[in-house]
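Researcher: Please predict.
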Amino acid sequence: MNHTTGTEPFDMSLVQCGARLRRSPFYEAEQHYGPKGYTVYNHMLFPIRYDDLEAEYWHLLNHVTLWDVSVERQVEITGPDGFRFTQLLTCRDLSRCAVGQGKYVLVTAPDGGIVNDPVLLRLGENHFWLALADSDVLLYATGLAAQAGMDVTIREPDVSPVQIQGPKSKDVVSSLFGPEILELRYYWFRETDLDGIPVVVTRTGWTSEVGYEIYLRDGSRGTELWERIMEAGRPHST
């Protein structure tokens, strides 16, 4: 077979986005702001930028940015043995994690390898969320639970986070939730609502800048939450 040399690179726009790639609750709202590309993360479409990458970097350092990170799919663990099972998943000592607190944890395999490195939130004595990096931890945890002989329920809840990051993020979340939200310590969270939209607000984020995450607990209200945050952020965007 002859191969033609010197051909143009494959046009990635020809790759079709079918039903197997899930869209976030914020997907429709994002289209009004001109996303310039997506990648795939945890089987979902993940917007990668809205502007020049360097411009976005400086905006993060100097102002405030909003990120759709609903690709951080949650694994929810509940049931009478919820704590014991979650401790089985990770090598981090969860007895030092209070209800209302989060921890960065490693989900480890029997050979000591790392399956995932999620942010864990403890919503109750036996109630946990794991905000996942890119891998199928839901399947791993389900398989482990089948062999562990513990009374737990494992599922993916209707929870989708966004991040508000940058030095002016405090101004934005304060205008959304009131100045008392600024009392949140690093890696702690609060269950609340925004104009009736059920959310969890955490003092966490991917960046080294000050930031917060808002976990939407009703996917039908994604556009409403996105636009509410954009409205609160406009006075602080420059």
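Model: The radius of gyration is 20 Å.
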